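Table S2 (text version). Query chain:
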Amino acid sequence: MIGLLEAFTRPLLRLLDAEDAHRLAIYALKLPPFVKLVADDPRIAVRAFGLNFPNPVGMAAGFDKHAEVPDALLKLGFGFVEVGTVTPLPQVGNLRPRVFRLPHDQGVINRLGFNSEGAEAVLRRLAARANAGGIVGVNVGANKESVDRIADYVRLIETFAPVVGYFSINISSPNTPGLRELQQAKMFDDLLARVMDARARMSRQAGTTPVLIKIAPDLTLNELDDLVGGARRHRVDGMIVGNTTLARPPTLRDQTVAKEAGGLSGRPLFTRATRMLAETYVRVEGAFPLIGVGGIDSGATAVAKIRAGACLIQLYSALVFHGLRLVASIKSELSNELRRGAHKGIDELVGADAAAMTAEKWPE
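Corresponding structure-token output:
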């Protein structure tokens, strides 16, 4: 049924402005019924950050920014959902148009700028579904006009700790001026000290909520060394690699659209993001798990991302071009990969190719 509906609606959605099509998709997900059609293969279950994921395929941040449809997405087969980015105060983000499709490249450029209904609205929705089950994380960011951006992250930890499965600390969006400066060693150390202190304080009443750091794929290796070192020193629970890129690969075919400012996601990001994932994996040395995101659009790319070092994966942009059937397709291919290699679980694949990948030529 999902396949039939998507075959009819996806061409229509592509006729709309990208952001309008997204809003329509959110509205459609609010309509019942949404039922999970096939039980997950137990072999693809993953335990990470102290949480049990029924499968490793997650919805990345950016789709359900305001926590409107996390349960519908879980029922459609995602192993977990990350809502946001959420900012403490409501903000409209950048001027439209601010989302652009690259159909020939199967990529998307966005310069949304943390458009958010704010913490209060999102908290109300997450609190209402707190006993519904399933893993829902929240991606948190700072307000554009904030005078103390680290304080914004602390405030969001304090706000959402009782109602979410994990935090994703977004310091890598390219669309909020100055935000990526929080990835610089000194500021990053200050950020982690305050965030982890807030998590410890909240754990007394809400339990320990995992804290993950979402990094950019555009880091230098020296910058990556600093970030991984800081993350290990402050005992964060994991990292998400990575966000959208400011780079524009020379192979892009939609050259006119490629000139738009913003972060590039989708298929053109895969090689760069996966290399950064492998580089991160070898530096982490098993201290904490990684989530791989960026350019996953098939079972093969999902397997490659896991073999580069991810125990969990996330996707979003590929759904624009392949629809929700992609989720089931990826899970099926993961099961097949385990069967072909006589592996008992995903953990036996994680990082298998990471060291070899770091010896390859750096991608353009």
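Notes on Table S2: The longest strand covers residues 80-86. Confidence is low (pLDDT under 50) at residues 1-5.
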